[in-house]
Amino acid sequence: MTRYIFITGGVVSSLGKGLASAALASLLQARGFSVRLRKLDPYLNVDPGTMSPYQHGEVYVTDDGAETDLDLGHYERFTGVSALQSDNVTTGRIYSDILAKERKGEYLGATVQVVPHVTNAIKDFALADLNGEDFVICEIGGTVGDIEGAPFLEAIRQLGYKLGRERALFLHLTLVPFIAAAGELKTKPTQHSVKELQSVGIHPDILLCRADREIPENERAKIALFCNLDQSAVIQALDVDSIYRVPLSYHEEGLDREVLRHFNLTSPEPDLTRWQEIVKRVTEPEGKVTIGVVGKYVNLLDAYKSLAEALTHGGIANNAKVEMRWIDSEIFEEEDPELHLSGVHGILVPGGFGERGSSGKIAAVRHARERQIPYFGICFGMQMAVLEMARNLAGIENAASSEFGATNQPVVGLMTEWERDGDIQRRSDDDDLGGTMRLGAYDCKLSAGTRVAEIYGEEMISERHRHRYEVNPTYRAELEKAGVVFSGLSPDERLPEIIELPESEHPWFVGVQFHPELKSRPFEPHPLFVSFINAAVTQSRLV
Ligand code: GLN
Question: Is position 517 annotated as part of the catalytic site?
Fold first, then answer.
């Protein structure tokens, strides 16, 4: 029997609903239950694929090629369960499906309405494509009271009623702020938020209250009284020093116990040793390295969420704290990279789009290559590495990417054709922007004897992609002559997936066309990040 936990948020946004959902899922898992996590997003975009990282943070890509909310990254990192297209939906997707059906006449003359058509579509989504999981945790994006969230709350209200108390639980995440002038924590915003939820017919079963300090017993009793709850169902969620401590902290506060109590379930105490071990390594590292991340969206770290986590995981594996120095690549268009990169033990250029800042990224690659600093290029960062070496090693002076406009040396060019599961995918310049990149998991064949073959210890790997351009294979021979090793290719050997410099030339220089950060997990750090941080540790002993 699959049970549903619906998670809503109140008072303010950014309380960490995604993390809370992921942490709860990991606790249920640690008690032996199987879990699936889903995110219902009320915004109108069909998916976050076309949104600016400044609007939305990172776009998380699943194995099956969905461009999804970054919370799905938390879900995967905390549970190890790979997310799918069927785990994230938006108002935009629901409406676009409904409108397409309406145009086909599939509603047989009915008036198409928010209730029941939109709410039914939301419920269908929540119920579909499951594998008999013990728990489905459905996070509702936004904050209670948002206009656009109303159909979602109505849908989960109906679903909760239909499933019954023994199969549905409503958990509400709120904030209990400390008001300095009064010297007190205040419960009123939580009371109001619960009222708002009750006004749409949802009565929360558990309140998870974010606070920056202990919520005194009597304040918790007050919240319980005003919100019709047992005091044990008012759980404090205190700020912690590492996100990986959240499952441990929730467990101490009794969250998983309370969830099981609601469902009348019993289970042995969870085994949380792996979380304890991870927290220990994150909070008590033996060494420290600094990685310079040269990108565009460095003012909003959510834009590089998975990347920052994967670097941390690389640190976990090497028992080192990874300090990230975020640098806006545009600076290098005017200033010497040395000014900003001195003292770093590794340089990483992450994924990116568009010409702005690209020459600064190329300058960063050159700096890393010439000064023998470990370099890791991801997607755009690989493409920029190839342009740098095409220009400065292979003598192709005008080497460019067709992403930046017409060029007579398209060393990086628009990908117009590729294979997916035996089908040929075709694209052209004037295609829609949304959902038309090379997306999702693709196999990649590694060449024996190369650095990456050794790092992965495998011949065939699968990694997630999200790009429209590729290193143009017609330049391969020229680049190889200049010393670039094409160490990973698509199985049909047409698309360059990984380039590297041999160990004799550089301590660690790897560029990958895919996004390895999306598959890194704290208890299963990605081999490329483990190896890159290891190289940075070695570097830190040299400088
Ligand atoms: N803009 C590049 C492309 O579309 C790289 C994309 C990325 O870094 N994810 O190919």
Answer: yes
